[in-house]
Amino acid sequence: MLHLLAVILLSGQAYSQGAPFPEDRFEMVESYLREQQDLSGVFVLGQQGKVRLSMAFGDADRKAGRPFTENTLSTIGSITKPFTATAILLLEERGKLSVNDKLTNYFNNVPKDKENITLHHLLTHSAGFPGAIGSDFEALDKDGFIKRAFAEALLFEPGTAYEYSNVGYSILGIILEKVTGQSYSDFMAENIFKPAGMETAGYHNPKADYTQLAHGYWADGRDWGTLHDKTWDGKEPYWNLKANGGLMMSAKDMYQWYLALRHHKILKPETLKKQITPYVDEGGGGSYYGYGYAIFNNGESIEHNGGNPVFSADFRWYPKADAFLFSATNDANVRLFRHNEAIVHILKTGERPATVDWQETELTSISPAPKLKTVQSFIDLLQHHQPAKATAFIDTHCSPGVIERNGKEKLMASLERLSHDIQQQPVKAIFTAGERVKLVIENPEQKAVMFFTIGFKDNQFDSLSVEMEGM
Question: Terminus of the chain with fewer CB atoms < 10 Å: N or C?
Answer without folding.
Answer: C
